[in-house]
């Protein structure tokens, strides 16, 4: 098994390489985010162990970029950051696990073994409709290599439309699914989010549109 370690602390990086090599892994170490991206882009690694705070590009941005480019190597974040929102940010970027510093060698190795066991069943967190893709980790829509970030609610609207290909989704279904049963949100709010998504599809020049069917709802369709 070959592991890429990205850690900007030279002493810790040396320690991590020693830990993995003495446990029968092949380990490469880098201390810069841009360098880590170049290495990981080769798609020759079985697993990634990434620090979040690195020069060049931070670990979260690095992993988002890899996932966008189809590199789905399992990844574990190793970081001193322990706040819940930062853990969620890392996992939403496409990481498989998260281990705060300080850590024990035994726990690190156990988590990496678990991560690598999932490698064969790892699936990219991507929804597609025609030539348009929606990344469920980064909340971005992509067409021909160009990306547009969606807000949380825009993402949820687009996700539901993509999951119900060829089906009309009513405003009431969107409201219930996204805002819940007891919300005061009305259909005008849905329209605003749909309008914003349409603008972002136009910015991508994507041949995809959200069509409104009178007295029915919204339908995602390909355009010529």
In CATH, the homologous superfamily of the largest domain goes by the name Response regulator
Shape descriptor: elongated
* Main sheet: strands, sense, barrel: 5 strands, parallel
Q: Strand order, main sheet: write it out.
A: 2-1-3-4-5
**What is the CATH class name of the largest domain?**
Alpha Beta
Q: Would you write up a description of this structure?
A:
The chain has 224 residues and is an alpha/beta fold. It has two domains: 120 residues, 3-Layer(aba) Sandwich (Rossmann fold), CATH 3.40.50.2300; 97 residues, Arc Repressor Mutant, subunit A (Orthogonal Bundle). The protein is 41% helix and 23% strand. The chain has eight helices and eleven strands. Helix 4 links the parallel strand 4 and strand 5. The relative contact order is 0.10.
Overview features:
five-stranded parallel β-sheet; four-stranded antiparallel β-sheet; 11 strands; Arc Repressor Mutant, subunit A; 8 helices; elongated; alpha/beta; Rossmann fold; 224 residues
Please summarize what this structure is:
41% of the residues lie in helices and 23% in strands. It has 224 residues and is of the alpha/beta class. It folds into two domains: 2-121, 3-Layer(aba) Sandwich (Rossmann fold); 126-222, Orthogonal Bundle (Arc Repressor Mutant, subunit A).
């Amino acid at each position: 098994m070959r592991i890429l370690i990205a850690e900007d602390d030279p002493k810790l990086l040396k320690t991590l390489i020693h830990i993995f090599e003495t446990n029968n892994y092949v380990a490469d170490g880098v201390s810069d985010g841009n360098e880590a991206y170049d290495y990981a882009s080769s798609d020759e690694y079985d697993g990634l162990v990434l620090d979040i705070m690195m020069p060049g590009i931070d670990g979260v941005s690095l992993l988002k970029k890899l996932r966008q480019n189809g590199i789905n190597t399992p990844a574990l974040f190793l970081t001193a950051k322990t706040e819940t929102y930062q853990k969620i940010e890392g996992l939403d970027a496409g990481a498989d696990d998260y281990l705060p510093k300080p850590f024990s060698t035994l726990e690190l190795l156990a988590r990496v073994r678990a991560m690598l066991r999932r490698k064969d069943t790892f699936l990219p967190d991507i929804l597609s409709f025609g030539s348009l893709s929606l990344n469920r980790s980064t909340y971005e829509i992509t067409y021909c290599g160009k990306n547009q970030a969606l807000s949380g609610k825009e993402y949820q609207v687009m996700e539901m439309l993509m999951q119900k290909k060829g089906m009309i989704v009513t405003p009431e279904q969107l409201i219930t699914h996204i805002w819940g049963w007891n919300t005061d949100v009305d259909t005008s709010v849905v329209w605003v989010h749909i309008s914003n998504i349409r603008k972002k599809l136009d910015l991508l020049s994507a041949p995809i549109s959200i069509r409104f069917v009178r007295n029915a709802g919204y339908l995602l369709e390909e355009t010529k």
